[in-house]
Design a protein that fits this description.
4 helices, five-stranded parallel β-sheet, two-stranded antiparallel sheet, about 20% strand, about 120 residues, alpha/beta, globular
Length: about 120
């Protein structure tokens, strides 16, 4: 079963931390969740957009995804263009999804949680 977590808020929003908590909980159970950064959530994975909360770093916690062997986060190409970003702006490797492939990829996911 594939579960996707879509992060749509800025790095300082409460929803961001809730979504990341769920993402890491699923990853720790070897469920290999698919992280999708969309809208303002795209910036969560970019250098210079780390956030601290209760002495935890958003970026350091995202670094755990590699240890859990989770797939690369997905980013919609239009969001990259909207925020004038390139794949080099991210703290982790990302898969850039073309608009015409977006719905097909999401249809292949069993559960989608949006934060």
């Amino acid at each position: 079963m594939t579960i996707a977590i879509i992060q749509t808020h800025s790095e300082h929003d409460e929803q961001t931390w809730l979504g990341q908590d769920m993402l890491l909980a699923l990853a720790s159970h070897d469920l290999n969740p698919q992280l999708i950064l969309s809208g303002a959530g795209v910036l969560q994975g970019c250098y210079g957009h780390d956030a601290q909360r209760q002495q935890r770093s958003l970026h350091k916690r995202y670094g755990l995804l590699e240890l859990f062997e989770c797939p690369n986060p997905w980013i919609l190409r239009s969001d990259l263009e909207r925020f004038q970003l390139t794949v080099e702006d991210f703290i982790f490797a990302v898969d850039v999804i073309e608009p015409q492939d977006w719905e097909q990829r999401l249809a292949a996911v069993n559960k989608v949680l949006v934060y």
